[in-house]
Each structure stands twice: as C-alpha cells, then as structure tokens.
C-alpha cells in the first residue's frame, strides 16, 4: 500500500514547513509527498527526517485566480503515476496528527469505494509549528463536521459536508470520480462539487476518527468580500451543474451588506 500526500500552495511558506515537519513525525511516512506550487517559485523541494518532498509548478493565469482544482488534479496525477494506491490531500495550513497517514491508508485499503475525510481542529493564534508534540492536547474538531473517535470509521455522510482541508481517496476511487472540475477557478465551490461528483460516481462519504488534522491560524474575512466575484462565478457554475446554488450563507451575508441581489437565475452583484 503506497501512499502519496498532495498539498497545493501559494505562499504560507512557514505553514508548509511546519506541515513537512509534522509529516516527518508520522507513525507511518508516506511514500511520496508532492507540493504543487501555484505561481510560487520560492517553494522548493526539501528533505527532512527521511521524508523528502517534490515540487510541481503550475502557472497562475493573468487574472490572478488560483487554479485550485487543476492544481489538486496535477498533484494526484503526479503521485498516482509514481505508483500511489492512496492519495491523501492536506491543505497547506493543516498539520497532520501522528496517526493521520496510517489511519487514511488503513481506511482506504479496507473500503476503497469511500471518499474519506478526517476531523480538523482550527488552532488559535500562536499555536501550530511549535506544538507538534502536543497536538493531541489541542484537539477540538470543528463542530460543523462529523468527528468520530480515534479508531472509528463512519460512512454515509452528507456530500455537502465534504471539504478539501484533509481527505483521502483510493486510486480506484479517484479514477471513478475523475478529479476536480477544472472549470472552477479562484475561491469557492469546487469542494462541494467534488463531494457531489464522488457520490454520483458511486462512492460513499466517510469519516476517519484517527485522521486528525490541525489547521494553523491565519487571518480570515467573514464573509469573504474579496472573493465575492469568484463566489458568484463559481456559484453560477455549480448551479448549472447541480441545479442549486452553494455557499448560500455567504451569499445571504453579502445580500445583507447590499453587495449582491437575488435574480431569477440566482445572484448577481448589486
């Protein structure tokens, strides 16, 4: 059972270094660790405690919208072409718990027709890279997602709860889904689309209690006004593909601020 870990990154270099250190302390090291650098030539390959990383570049278009879906697909292709049986995706901000790689590998080998996710704890400011030996003490999974106990597997979840912060899929499962839809660019929508595509392809949703990850803090904007145009564009694409708009909480918040208005087709800038 060969495991490849994929992270897509643009900036967040300290977070990426902390992630590498965390993976190098894993109970089970991945056979491959690929970082897809989106328009960021400063990201370079490194080796740490027996765990090397490979860097694959992908260009960012002139409009500046990060090609998140295309970058994840490139990362998956890279590790699968090198023989990975399981692909683990970690957001650049996520630190892996010691059991994460092993737990995902075990779950995917037992049930390869499940799209597996793990609980994620959002760390407060000032916690992260220096706490790699104490992450268990900080464990407090996000309440909006399932959080089974370590050693437990739960299947049959809602595909709209899928998120790409931390998930794993077998090579067979990835082939059935066909990857992320690359029509999505910039921020928002591609995660939920992938979850629905997985279910449409016959995969179940599942949660792995042992695959715990810890999201390092960074400033956020809520609602994400700077991504408003991306959300409108990707939301319209999602509606075209699935018959309804995603991200409705954000859209309602934008509406309350007078930034968007409802139309017969959905939403538009006010």
From TrEMBL:
Superkingdom of origin organism: Bacteria
InterPro entries in UniProt: Galactosyl_T_C, Nucleotide-diphossugar_trans
An example molecular function term from Gene Ontology annotations: glycosyltransferase activity
Residue ranges constituting the Galactosyltransferase C-terminal domain according to the UniProt record: 166-218
Pathway stated in the Swiss-Prot or TrEMBL entry: Cell wall biogenesis; cell wall polysaccharide biosynthesis
Listed SUPFAM superfamilies: Nucleotide-diphospho-sugar transferases
Record has Iron as a keyword: no
Keywords noted in UniProt: Glycosyltransferase, Transferase
Family per similarity comment: Belongs to the glycosyltransferase 2 family.
Protein name: Glycosyltransferase family 2 protein
Source organism (scientific name): Nocardioides marmotae
């Amino acid at each position: 059972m060969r495991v490849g870990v994929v992270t897509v990154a643009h900036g967040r270099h300290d977070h990426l270094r902390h992630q590498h250190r965390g993976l190098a302390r894993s109970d089970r090291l991945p056979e491959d660790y690929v970082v897809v650098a989106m328009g960021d030539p400063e990201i370079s390959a490194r080796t740490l405690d027996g765990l090397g990383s490979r860097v694959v570049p992908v260009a960012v278009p002139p409009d500046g919208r990060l090609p998140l879906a295309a970058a994840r697909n490139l990362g998956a292709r890279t590790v699968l072409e090198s023989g990975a049986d399981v692909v683990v995706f970690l957001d650049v901000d996520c630190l892996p718990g010691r059991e994460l790689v092993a737990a995902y590998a075990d779950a995917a080998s037992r049930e390869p027709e499940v799209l597996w996710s793990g609980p994620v704890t959002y760390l407060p400011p000032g916690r992260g890279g220096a706490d790699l030996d104490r992450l268990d003490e900080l464990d407090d999974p996000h309440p909006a997602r399932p959080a089974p106990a370590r050693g437990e597997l739960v299947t049959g979840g809602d595909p709209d709860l899928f998120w790409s912060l931390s998930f794993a899929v077998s090579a067979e499962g990835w082939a059935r889904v066909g990857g992320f839809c690359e029509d999505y660019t910039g921020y928002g929508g591609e995660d939920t689309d992938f979850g629905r595509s997985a279910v449409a392809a016959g995969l179940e949703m599942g949660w792995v209690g042992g695959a715990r990850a810890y999201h390092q803090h960074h400033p956020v904007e809520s609602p994400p006004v700077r991504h408003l145009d991306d959300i409108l564009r990707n939301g319209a694409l999602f509606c075209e593909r699935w018959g309804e708009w995603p991200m409705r909480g954000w859209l309602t918040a934008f509406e309350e601020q007078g930034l968007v208005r409802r139309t017969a087709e959905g939403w538009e800038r006010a």
